[in-house]
Amino acid sequence: MTVHQDGEALLLLPQKAIYWQKEKLLMLSDAHLAKDAHFRKHGIAIPNALSDSTLNGLSDIIAAHSPERLLILGDMFHSDWNRGVEKFIAWRKSFASLSVELVEGNHDVLGTEKYIEMGILSHGFSYTIGPFFFIHEDDGANEKFTFSGHIHPAIKLRGKARQVLRIPCFWWQPKAAVLPAFGAFTGNHSIKAKKKDKVYGIAGDEVMEIQ
Fold this sequence. Notes:
The protein is an alpha/beta fold. It has a single domain (2-149), classed as Purple Acid Phosphatase, chain A, domain 2 (4-Layer Sandwich). The chain contains four helices and 16 strands. It has helices spanning 35-41, 50-65, 83-92, 112-117; strands spanning 2-5, 8-13, 17-20, 25-28, 69-72, 99-102, 120-122, 126-129, 132-135, 145-148, 153-158, 164-173, 176-178, 189-190, 198-203, 206-209. Strands 8, 9, 10, 11, 12, 13, 14, 15 and 16 form a nine-stranded mixed β-sheet that branches. A seven-stranded mixed β-sheet has the order 1-2-3-4-5-6-7. Strand 12 and strand 13 form a beta hairpin. The longest helix has 16 residues, at 50-65. The model has no long low-confidence stretch (mean pLDDT 88).
């Protein structure tokens, strides 16, 4: 689904990312790579292929849209250095020409030198491109239209016989948009959208306007 914002066309992808074709820029948030390894390191029996699933999904998007830049809006990694981070390093070699850029979030604790070693350009905690401002957790302080993540938004759909289905969504507000969590190993949070908001739910391979 294509959404127009401030004169720019943005493609909302069912893989929980946005492609800004004019800039050849793919944006996503909350990949939480290496979260599975972090849990296993602390004795919690989590399958160790969840980061693989996230990276494979990212590979598919890159193959389909050929972006030149990948901008991650925080929580790229879940914790400090572990084997899951090494999986990203191996994956990165397959996309050496892709500019991987990070707006740091609360879980991004590896530090500038490590990001440089991995071929990641860190913009610190905020970044601006054209009419848009990018940050991990939006505090509403910036005047530009703001893209963020952090809250892992989802929307509840209610049917007959008290049926309730919760699906991830893009939450579009008058001056800001919140991206769904991209990672395969993340929870989500049900939002309370206002009447003036737009909500684009993700169901399978489709993005649909809910509100």
